[in-house]
Amino acid sequence: MAWADYNRDGHLDAFITRGGVSGKIGRYKGVVQDQLQLGEGSTFHNGSAGSGIRKGTCRGRAAAAVDYNREGLLDIFAACFKGGPKLYRQRAKGTFEGVSGPLRKSRMEGTAFAWVDVNGRRGQELLSARKRGFAVYRRRKARWRRAQTIHGRHDGLVQTLAIADYDNDGTQTCTPPRGPAARCS
Length: 185
Fold this sequence. Notes:
By secondary structure, this protein is mainly beta. Helix content is 3%, strand content 35%. The protein starts with a strand and ends in a 34-residue tail after the last strand.
């Protein structure tokens, strides 16, 4: 689930991505759906119809609310088990459009994902955990590319990633000082 005020009405909403029905999601295409629950104070109503969100065969494992394109509108991200993630860009009228194609073209894969400003430029990169390492994906001119691969010391599947402000400076990244010998600590 990804909790956020998607429709900007002051109430908390929830995007819920559904799992893979024991690996048989293909049999249930069109039956099992992800949901956008819109908050109305102490209750919710299903806002999925007409929203533009399409489940397809994504075996949902995690969801995130992110303004990946810095337009000021919250977009929706869904991680899919054994498949490329799904990304929905929010339009001005509150509907969503699938923009997962460029993610697929970049061959993005992973078992856990996190959005974080890795390079300190106020944009969100996508961190992906893989079987023996991690990858940082960056978006430039509507294309995603792997900007960095980080080799890890794990052999199994990473289930979750935790992002934190380790140096208590109010950011999730380290911005190095200027100069030829400058580096983050």
